Give the backbone structure.
Amino acid sequence: MADKGKCVGRTPEGQVVFADAAAPGDVADVLVRKKKDDYLMGHLLTIHEYSPYRTEPFCQHYEECGGCQWQHIGYDTQLEHKQLMVENALRRIGKVQTESMMPILPADRTVYYRNKLEFAFSNKKWRTSEEMAQGEVAQQNVLGYHRAGAFDKILHIDHCWLQDSPSNEIRNALFEIAESQELSFFDVSQNSGFLRHVMIRVTTLGEVLLVMSFGERDEPNIKRYLDAVLERFPVLTTVAYCINPKPNDYWLDLDVVPYYGKGFIEEELGHVRFKIGPKSFFQTNTTQAIRLYNVVTEFAALKGTENVYDLYTGLGSIALYVANQCRQVVGIEQVEEAIEDARINAALNGIQNAVFYAGDVRNILTEEFAARHGKPDLLITDPPRDGMHPDVVKMLLQLEAPRLVYVSCNPATQARDLNLLNEKYVVRKSQPVDLFPHTYHIENVALLELKSRG
Ligand SMILES: C[S@@+](CC[C@H](N)C(=O)[O-])C[C@H]1O[C@@H](n2cnc3c(N)ncnc32)[C@H](O)[C@@H]1O
């Protein structure tokens, strides 16, 4: 297995080939799509010898979707490769000792594990080879996922195994209602059309949030459409929308207009209840998020007296999770709405020892900030995929918190940052946690201790 879920092999002449949809041990023909001087890249075409690690994918969209890249590989093998991915990155780039690496924590539930999914409306359907053979026309309305590598084509989804009921029912009804009301679907090439994008979020408390993006501010049609959806799904607890006239689907920078319900949903993670606004980051696998935060708590080993910083705090999830075990927790996050939620969440849970700041960690976390809030005894950091900015790493080295807990969704950038932190820190433990079965994505938690001087 290589990076991003691809397999790496060799041609009979010895040339390196990277292939999608392959499994370790396959002997296969690869349709080459990219030729570089020192490697080829392509897609698996015909398998001559099957890998012993293969299993039958259970999703009807697996071949075309690309969302769950590893459905053709047994779950135990997926876990082995995730473990190796983390270990290799941390050992090679992060200079982490193998003794500190703990075995991956698997997911109990390997289907319907996501609480959030997003789908795009389009008038350009990606036609499967079967549909092309049946002569389906190219210009067709569709609601589903972006096709990897084809920015303007959307794969129609009938059933997705990632999100629990009523997600599939709602998405399919959104399509049917749109067609019956003869509404226009978005046309990427013209940057026009009414229906654009939808996010569905469900919680274990039975709440369901729907956020629609419309390409045009057509109030009567917005009302007609959303009322029909609400009538069909009384289970929806909050419906909101935004108007997106931009050339891309990104909607987090747009105003979200509440349409129905309280404007947010609620979820419980262990002992903490969270209010989640439409724009706030929240771990997408609720059950495994609890497991992840329990690892953080275990690594943190708080005694009740500590001053804790939680960088990239989102809506304060980790900060509030550990607040009852320390003297004070200080959270920093760049999305202002998330920080508003964090403060509301603190109040909701009667937590009085948590303070939150909105802004880029790079600008907020300074020597002066640390002087004002007290130097951290423990610093928790959970940056996005790109990892921490080198200036932030520099600041951590300056602050010299006795312990750091580094949560990451990208072992490569985590390893890069650990390598920089190596100047003053040693990695004591590394614990991978699987939050995303059937994909190559993996979370890893590392515990770092300040090296003793002299
Ligand atoms: C992987 S999430 C972690 C959120 C939270 N710790 C949790 O477990 O739910 C990363 C968070 O960092 C925020 N973020 C990204 N870049 C940032 C920056 N430069 N400064 C502050 N926050 C940032 C994102 O908005 C997001 O909420």
